[in-house]
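With this grant's support, the team has encoded backbone shapes as discrete tokens. A representative record is reproduced below.
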Amino acid sequence: LKDIKPVRWFAVLSLFFLLSVLWSGEIKSFDNHLLRILAVWGLVLLLYYISVYRPEMFARIDLAMACFGLVWLVVIVADWRSLWRANIIYNITSISRGVFTHHLQVGWMLAVLSLLSLQRIFRKDSRTLLWILVTLVFFIILIFAQARGGLLVFFAGVIAFFFVGKSYVNTRSIIMLTAGLLLTSGVSCMFYPEMFLRLLERGASGRFIIWQNWYDLWQGDVIKLIFGHGLGASTENINTEHNTVIAHYHNFYLNTYFYGGMVGIMMFFAWIFSVLRPQSIKTRDYLPWFPVLCGMLTGFLTDGDKLFNYPGAFTFCFILPAFCLVFAKKRPSANEE
């Protein structure tokens, strides 16, 4: 395990951010952050040992996620009260459940599940119609969740998939899938036009003001510019447009820079580069995790807080796909079942 470069980079990244708690002024939260980091590492070790000792099981993690995702979706929809009202007044916060504490996190998970099921449409001997139906189910709930960050993840992931997996794509399946997505969106817009209007009305949700607040933090503070404020520091700031307190800077990269400074953000990108570099895995093994990872990295432009957030959507939507990609060297071709 220690010979795998992305794992080494992630270890360095973990240690740096853990130590950053010491200069954040919140030393009492050290044990909390330590437990979160150790929990993430527990997941990493689990994935590694599955890939080594049960490679056939490792090759079907995406299938397991899609199947459990359907069960999870049934639970959410069954308890999503505003969805079942005769005159729907969309309350996007009502979709939050358990560790998915915000509708965006539900949107991320739905986007990841949509991408995983979409890619199964194009596998050899796949049940194409079944997986098209599953993809459409995840996608329509993603629309109803009104998580624009989730939609960004989905469409960025689709572009990455067609770029990397073009040799697996067939025209008939593309036409069927595209028609299904357009029909789903069209019917939803026809019956619930106010849902799409709300997506547009929310605009940037004050993000430019929030990002300006982030920029104003660094005036004349060279030490924090280099090493950050520390993982225990608060990212709360004021959105003066709506006079509300915002939990963080609605951009994962800005938040990472806030916590770890120039050193932290450079370590993060070094780790990502080691995960994505072509020499680390065979081209066939980019699927199904590379499109998910690309989608999440794009979605981080508009949201995302801490890297070590366990349990939560971040772990399942980003950490898990990243290390599945890292440990994919020995698994069967994505086109073989």
